[in-house]
Design brief:
The complex is a heterodimer. Chain A is an alpha+beta fold. Chain A is built from 10 helices and 21 strands. The chains are: A alpha+beta, B mainly alpha.
Amino acid sequence: MLTVDLRIELPDFTAEAAFEAPAGVTALFGRSGAGKTTLINAVAGLVRPASGRIEVGGTVLFDAAKGIDLPVQARKVGYVFQDGRLFPHMTVARNLSYGGSVDAQRVIAMLGLGPLLARSPATLSGGERQRVALGRALMSGPRILLMDEPLSALDAERKEEILPYLERLRDETELPILYVSHDMSEVARLATTLVIVDRGRVLRSGPVAQVLSDPASVRSLGVREAGAVITGTVESYDARDDLSRLVFDGGALILPCRLGPEGSTARVRVAASDVILARTAPKEISALNVLPVKITGLAQGKGPGVAVGLQAGSARLLARVTRRSAAALELEEGQEIFAIIKATAVARRDIGHS
Amino acid sequence: MEGLGPEEWQAVWLSVRVAATATLFSVPLGLLAALALARGRFPGRWAFNILVHLPLIMPPVVTGYLLLLAFGRKGPLGAFFDEVFGLVFAFRWTGAALAAGVMGFPLVVRAIRLAIEAVDPRLEEAAATLGASRWRIFATVTLPMILPGILAGAVLGFAKGLGEFGATITFVSNIPGQTRTLPLAIDAALDVPGAEPLALSLAVVSVVLAAAALGLSEWLARRSLKKTGAL
């Protein structure tokens, strides 16, 4: 568990943030320039806060009041930088063992680094480089893993190559991971906890499904990024139509492509703007998914939109409709209505595994 | 052109010895000076920068004269080295090496400083997050990355030492076997009627040595770029 509560003076603004990162992936999400990297650098000891406290798993890394400020070297943070920062004059093997050889065999196997060991960093692809950087950080035996937009320099294909490794890391280790990103698909796939940051302040934080399905989050996330995450079990795959059926506590969703082997767990992000609401169950409609849901809350946006929180069983959804529609349908809290989701609205990059 | 006699070969070997000794001392000191200039934040840094560059911009004869004042037998530094280390510079080959070292120093510092400034400090940050101490970071990240720059600086300093004339002749005079390096031998040969072919032969040796040093330096610079992935 990481506990952060600090104040950092920056040229443009003063960052004042407090949040907690339990085991799993805690995503620091916000637009660029929001101060995410500053916060992660403060945890690493690369930026010195004006005041506050940072603690990881019972070890105090920084406490201004008590005059504690562990140097970077002593903090035992595994840092995966955006640009990898491999040592160009060393082989992959020497890069990996630079900070130690903790669990070397397992890390090399998990990240598929065996064939790369003798190579020089200059000959690696962007994705390979980030895998090596991740391996190097893990082999140093860190208390916490810090990742600063590790995928942002990669194209979509390379991202797909690395994300499964990160999902495995999240599910197979107890290591808390602090993950900076401005990509909502990445966050929705990886995060267990979400911290939304803007101008150095924490706007919202909490378990990812809860924060993302809260209509009040829409304003802090931006209307394009808003959308809930549903975790379910892959029940079947129809090869003829290339569609999978994902069963979750509040119903089932038909989604494109093969989500994974039957019985496996998958999580999908359903963007709020892709959800249509109806008072009665529509007939003869092309959308494959019509879910009976209950309205849990409404939040008025600045523009013409209204965010509508929905509940289906224990699962949460979020829809964004116009104020006019909300008025015409007379939407109100506690009402039972129908949520309609196009299968094709869910993109491949919005589907994660665990 | 004429074959070289024992006296001329003596001048060649003396030149190599003088230049090599000068390089041996100016490289470690140059590394410290370059680190201070590239990374140090201390009062008087600009003054230190000018001091380091003085031998490059002053007339060599002035440098030689100042060396004579400071390191001559009666000079303050000359007396100090004589008393403490039994080391005499005046009119000895050691003085020629000192003059060569001082004249080449700015070149050595500049080459190493450029290399240090080209090192991405973010790599050193990455090493720190992996638990490396400042010394280990310097030895395993910074030093290997600037090594080609250090070698290039050494070659430049060595070549400068081979060719140094003005400061040397002013400081330690032109004594055969003691301070008569290649350029001074050429100068002496030109003063003797009929010895011009000998001067030409010495000049050719000089050109070959200088070209070899420059070629080596270019090769090292290229290798450095390749290694850091810039080429």
